[in-house]
Amino acid sequence: MLAALGVLSFSLTFPSTVWGLESFGPWSLVAVRSTLAALIAGTFLLVGRVPLPERRHWAGLAVVAGGVVIGFPLLTTLALQTSTTSHAAVVVGLLPLTTAAFAALRTGRRPSRTFWFAAVSGAVVVLAFTVQQSGGAVSQGDLYLFGALLVCAAGYTEGGRLARLMPGWHVIGWALILCLPLMAAGSAVALSVEPVHLNAHGVIGLIWVAAGSTFFGLYVWYRGMASIGIAKASQLQLAQPLLTLIWSVVLLGETLPLAAPLAAVAVLVCIAVTQRAKS
Predict the structure, then answer these.
(1) Strand, coil or helix: what is 195?
(2) Distance between CA 202 and CA 95 in Å, rounded?
(3) Tell me, what's the pLDDT at 137?
(4) Contact 18, 85 (CB under 8 A)
(5) Angle, nearest 10°, between helix axes 218-228 and 168-193?
(6) Residue from 44, 21, 45 nearest 33 by CA
(7) What is the pLDDT of residue 126?
(8) Which residues of the chain fall below pLDDT 70?
(9) CA torsion sign, 26 to 18 to 269 to 163?
(10) What is the end-to-end Cα distance of the chain in Å, rounded?
(11) Nearest to 144, CA basis, from 26, 234, 237, 58
(12) pLDDT at position 8, please?
């Protein structure tokens, strides 16, 4: 349930980012988003009197910071300047398989053949959906999204490992604090260069990606991964692009692709198989 709640939070990230881009430039949105999330995390860490992590954990926290605090938000925000939310959502649907592969390499665990068959099948469905919708072309936005897959999978894997050693909110909290000096400086520079046009959508989008996606979503996500394992939790994210497709229609007025219902059924079947497969 915790991992699923994280997926629900993440499914709103792309629509919220599109809203945020109505008021902020891409670099400003990413920097301010991370700065606000770090201030929220810092407040919780301070109130809870949480001690500093052990020295041996800082390298892992740096990977989390680089992957999910800086890399993924920046690359996906750049992609959403040219790609639709629905297109970006299905490309990022490959994240579960990427995360499972990283987890197998990093942790040494080997999920069953049934697990891998279902995971690869889900990824194939998502990839076929993406190619069908894009007409077989690979755009610059797609390259940003593929890069985002790699850095986010690394961050998820390392965060899931650390969440077995410390509370999940400590993991994302300290990763955010680690980025705070850079993101605060980046906010000052980006806001002075990129124009700002505040409106309701822009402010709501910024607040959600900072407090909802970056802090709360990652908190429950890492707790969920620590409980059921990185590989299995990652497969729940196969539902994320389909949820984002719904939000893109409801919140952004985008047209839902006709292939989406078929892809939804196929992906949900894959999720059910991966959750039942023994590691």
Answers:
(1) coil
(2) 27
(3) 67
(4) yes
(5) 150
(6) 21
(7) 79
(8) 134, 136-138, 257, 275, 278-279
(9) positive
(10) 19
(11) 26
(12) 93
Task: Please give the backbone phi and psi of residue 18, each rounded to the nearest 5 degrees, phi first.
Answer: -60, -40
The two three-digit tokens of residue 43, written as one number: 């407040």
152, 71 contact by CB (below 8 A): yes
- Give CA angle at 275 (270, 278), nearest 5°: 115
Supply the pLDDT for residue 274: 73
What is the chain's Cα-based Rg?
18
Nearest Cα neighbor of 234 from 100, 131, 114 is: 100
- pTM value is 0.84
CB 263 within 8 A of CB 239: no
Distance CA 64, CA 143 (A): 21
Question: Alpha-carbon distance 172 to 64, whole Å?
Answer: 8
Predicted local confidence at residue 52, as pLDDT: 93
